[in-house]
Amino acid sequence: MTMGYDFRFTHFEHDHLITAFTTSWSAPSNIALVKYWGKKEVQIPCNPSVSFTLRECRTQTTIQFDLQSSKKEEILFSIQYEGQPAPSFAPKITEFLKRIKPYVPFLTHYHLTIDTCNTFPHSSGIASSASSMAALAAGIVALEEKLNPSLTKEEQTNKCSFLARLGSGSAARSVEGPIILWGNHPESPNSSDLFGVKLAVYDNVFASYHDTVLLVDQGQKIVSSTVGHNLMHNHLYASTRFEQARENYSQLLKIFSKGDLVAFVDLVEQEALSLHAMMLTSSPSYLLMQPNTLRIIEEVRAFRKKSGLHLAFTLDAGANVHLLYPDAEAEKTRRFIENNLRQYCQDNALIHDRIGMGIKNT
Ligand code: DP6
Questions:
Q1: pTM
Q2: 185 and 224 share a domain?
Q3: Which residues, judged by CB distance below 6 Å to any ligand atom, belong to the binding site of ligand 1?
Q4: Nearest to 166 by CA among 238, 79, 104
Q5: Of 23, 170, 258, 310, which is most buried with the most CB atoms under 10 A?
Q6: What are the pLDDT digits (tens) for 107-124?
Q7: Residue of minimum CA distance from atom 6 in ligand 1
């Protein structure tokens, strides 16, 4: 980040604002290896996290900005999903725009017409907040760049991640790829609590990774991530969990540079189960895994023992299972998934995805 650039945009006058601008962006989802779970105000993570950016699971968003005759108190918008009015999305976007207003004050002069859709089914149980907030932030930064062409590429990327984070923490990790760090850690001097950064050093094997998402439950989550994060306040194990994540982050940097797949599997699975252990031991406690989640975990572990391959599972805040494996093992692993695991998916549904590179102007 350029020294002194503090994400605020100050220099503009109404006369210099462009009257209309339309921009379209596609942003991917991501899957965390070291999990973000627990935050402080506003959207500051309690521990650093690391993720693979995905390639296929994406949100595509077009924003039309229309200059208003005068500045408004709030940022005005309308929202459509797949071409239809989507009032249920409005509260999250209202909150997002409220949070980002100090950093993009020029938006109070515009009305935003937002049109969005996902490449994955909205009801698949796949979290779309990361991809949708990253796509929205990308469109807003594109307007800022029009108004302030001196904004460098690096500033644009960082600002996009910074704004996306204010919409949803994990969205900070959806702007770039293939491997993103978010949250301060002494071993990564460029890391920040405010935006995601790329991991620079990793063995090539990781750039080949696949992520097959097993859709165990395609319904709405019973407890939202926001509520889950809040339950980390006063959680009996919170400080130990944050320490564990910091240590795992540090281990993961070593694993990435050595290409140690055995250690990778251990760490990723421990992280997933630690995340769910936090849910099981919060007050009130809750349980997002389902019987088929556990069956899949057992099968993956038995397959690994028998085959000597490096298939790992990880979990989001839900019942679905992400299966991570290197390209060199894809053929055998895919056969196992088809023969043994597809049966545990609701309507036999799964999504084959791969590690990817972040936002695209479309
Ligand atoms: C379990 O980013 O969805 O997926 O900041 O409240 O929007 P908010 O939470 P969100 O939390 C993601 C939690 C997770 C782990 C992760 O992606 O790191």
A1: 0.97
A2: no
A3: 32, 35-37, 43, 49, 127, 129, 168-170, 225-226, 229, 275, 316-317
A4: 104
A5: 170
A6: 999 999 999 999 987 667
A7: 226
